[in-house]
Amino acid sequence: MPSLLLNWILGPALMFSLAWVFLPDLPAYRTGLIIVGLARCIAMVIIWNDLAGGDREAAAVLVALNSVFQVLAFAGLGWFYLFALPGWLGLATAALDVSTWTIARSVLVFLGIPLLAGYLSRRLGERAKGRDWYETRFLPKVGPVALYGLLFTIVILFALQGGGVTSHPLDVARIALPLLAYFAIMWTGSFAVGKAVGLNYERTTTLALFVCVHNAGRSQMAAALLDRHAAGRVHVRSAGSIPAAEINPAVRAAMAELGLDLSVEYPKPLTDDVVQAADVVITMGCGDACPVYPGKRYLDWDLPDPAGKNIEEIRPIRDEIDHRVRTFLKQLVAAT
Predict the structure, then answer these.
(1) pLDDT tens, position by position, 175-220
(2) Whole-model pTM above 0.70?
């Protein structure tokens, strides 16, 4: 809800106001600025979120929601802010002739094609060479291509408009001022909304990484328990230095007793990128296989390995992890 409120109610209204304040005598630029306020940057958000170390799953959900709203609401909001509202206020009006299909086609091209490529590469890659190869060798090589593509797009956009930029520097400056004001206000407002719902900057950006050897027991339990207790205040990941093929069935059963479903989880490999993105790394027996980076906060929890144990033997391990997770969360919250 906060995302929809900011993106589709406050954002367009703010850009409309700024466009009329800064560009009252330049109708073409003013119209373009208002349209920028209506067009959510959806495809690039995934890249920016990754660069900032944000929660990928949450970003994907928000991008999906905003994509749907882009298709459904863009034309109507364009009519409202370019024709209806200016008319009610006695201002000059403009028209926006954009069909819903045109917007849907753009969303399908810029999001649908990468999504399909990602899905097919994972399905075919894992089927041909396995999950470990796909996540430890293929993804690290292909991942940077997305960033290169973003930078290439930005360079091409400015190159194509180079003549206009250099021939009208004052107009560019006048357009830049409301854009800077818009992004400053929206960025500050986003964090203000987060704080109002109990998610301040540090707590929303802290990422805790639980690491064990196989990522099939201790680290999976710790990640699930912290995710429940933190209730969105901390981003949680887990990984293993030598990931197993699946999560220990007895661990799944022990966590199910607490109402935590690990059936959709799977052991994930420990990579340099995952460690670098974390603010706190909690190791659970991975030893020398755990990479150490300066500036990272490391904790080591000496816990028995649940491998080969039955559910009765795993319950005390689970409960000890739960106790340590609660203590860690209290310390983390107090520090912020």
Answers:
(1) 999 999 998 898 888 777 766 665 544 444 456 777 888 889 999 9
(2) no
Tokens 């995934």 locate to 46
The string of DSSP codes covering 267-297 is --B--HHHHHH-SEEEESS-GGGS---TT-E
Mean pLDDT throughout 323-332?
A: 90
Among the listed residues 290, 317, 321, 329, the single catalytic one is: 290
H or E element, residue 208: strand 207-212
**Helix, strand, or coil (residue 160):** helix
- 41 given a catalytic annotation: no
d(CA 47, CA 52): 9
Of 74-83, 114-123, 327-336, give the lowest mean pLDDT range: 327-336
C-alpha span between 265 and 252 (Å, rounded): 10
For residue 241, give the 3-state DSSP assignment: coil
96, 211, 212, 255: which is the annotated catalytic residue?
212
The full set of domains in the chain, from first to last, is 2-196 (no CATH), 204-335 (3.40.50.2300)
290 among known catalytic residues: yes
The token pair at 281 is 């790394």
Give the chain's mean pLDDT. 81
Asked if 77 contacts 8 with a C-beta cutoff of 8 angstroms, the reply is yes
Distance of CA 302 to the CA centre of its chain: 32
> What is the rounded CA–CA span in Å between residue 315 and residue 229?
18
pLDDT tens-digit readout, 307-318: 999 999 999 999
Alpha helices, DSSP H only, in the chain? 2-5, 11-22, 27-38, 43-51, 56-79, 85-88, 100-107, 113-129, 131-133, 139-160, 162-167, 169-196, 201-205, 218-230, 249-256, 272-277, 311-335
* 212 catalytic residue (yes or no): yes
The answer to whether 37 touches 16, Cβ cutoff 8 Å, is: yes
Among residues 254, 286, 317, 329, the one annotated as catalytic is 286
